[in-house]
Structures are given as C-alpha cells and as structure tokens.
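Hey, I'm writing a tutorial for new members on how sequence and structure tokens pair up, and I'd like a real worked example in the thread rather than a made-up one. If someone can provide the structure for the chain below, I'll link this post from the tutorial.
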Amino acid sequence: MKIKHNKKRNTAFVYEALVREITVAVIKNDSDTKEKAVAIIKKHFKPNSVLKRNLDCYRSLYENNKGLDEKTSEKILREAKLSSRLLDVHGLFVSHSDLIDDVNKDLSPSVFNNFVPNYKTLASIYQIFSQDTTPKNSVILENQLIKDMTAAGESQMELEPIDNLALTSFVGKFNEKYDGVLSEEQKNLLSLYISSFSDNSLSLKSFLNEEIHRLKASVTESLELTEIAEDADMSKKTAKVVETLDNFSSSGVSEELLITVLKTQELVKELIENVDNN
C-alpha cells in the first residue's frame, strides 16, 4: 500500500526530529544549536497552541500505550481522530508553515532528515488523521496501529524493525559524531532533559534522584578497588566525585548537573567493565 506522507507537515515527526537535533547539540556541546532548537520547540509547541494540541493527538497513539486491551485502544484511537479533526485546519497549516520556515532559517533543512526510530508509526498516524486517506487504507492503518497498541510490552524498535542498511548508516554517522555509543542511562537522561520543559522537569527530577543514588553507590564501592585504593591521587579524585554528587542531590536541575551526571555515568560504566574484565 503506497502512502502519501509529507513528513514536514507531520507534527510529531518534526517534534521528534527537533528533539534529536537537541540531543546532538548537547552531546557536542553546541549551545547555539541547542538553544535555537529549544526555542523553536517552546515557541511552536507552547500549551494550547494548535501544534501542541495536534502533537498530543499523535502522542496518545504512540507514547506509553503498549499492552492495552483492544477496546481501550479503539477508544483512544477514536478520541484521537476526533480531537485531531476538531482542530482548525487552516490554523494548523499556517502553524506548520511557520514551523518549517523557522527550522530552515534558524537551524537547517537537514533537521528533516534526522533519524526517528518510530517513523513508520508516525507516518501511519499522519495518514489516519488525514481526510484525504481512503476508507480502505484508513481501516488497514488503524488495524495495524491497534495491533501495535495491544502488543504486550514490545518496544517500537521491535515492532518496526529498521532496514539493516539504514541502521548501519545511522550507527556509523552516530559514532562518527559522538565518538562512541551512549549507554541506556545516558540516553534516558538526555531524553528526559530535552522534554523536561513540558512537565516542569518532574520526570527528569525523579530519574535524577534514583540515578544519582545509583552512581554514588557505584563510585563509593570503587574506592575499595585495589588500583584506586593504592593510588592516592585516584582515590582523592574518586572521593571528590562522590562529594560532587552529594552536593547535586540537593540542588536544582542545571546543565552543570547534566554534564556531571553524564560523565559519571561513563565513569561508572568503565569501572564496571574493568571489574568484569578482571
């Protein structure tokens, strides 16, 4: 089934592409790009804006909805379609145009080529929301979406395998840009940091509380390792890391905290790998 899809006017795709642009900027310490991308998100996806309401319709169908029963999935789909079609069509078109213009002008058209893992799902939702989709194609797309929503605990990557060539290409570019691969903890931290403005940092703060506790415990245990205990300088620096994490545990969220936790996550990862190898 051929699907006509304009990804630049797919609200969720553009949002996810911007999120990944910010991730790149944070890792590369490119504050200019990060600030511009964050400003675009805050400007166009502010509460009650037509793009934010449209994004919420998409999110109800692709975020945190695995393992639902079929009846619930159908109700969510029905309500999402209704909410989407109650939006001001002209206002949405104008808002998309303004968003595209800002991305092209302030960032780069290459943002629209950013890798988005759940691209197929977002494209399907775009078609489901479109009034130009034929009834037959709409039913086929909706049935597949409901099947995905009722799948028990599978991740989007598992439900929609990426073509090996595309995956290899992406991983290559990823490693070339970042000089390494982020751990799951680092990915989670960056993802929550990027989206923190949308929920007043509640999810990020919750994650940080648990993550800082985990890192402190791991670094404290490392003080007993022979290579650290017998090296006064290493022992001093390791103790300093614990002290820094202690201070951060009672402070607010900041970029300094983010960078410190990212570096500590990498340190703990290396310590664990060294212990395993020995």
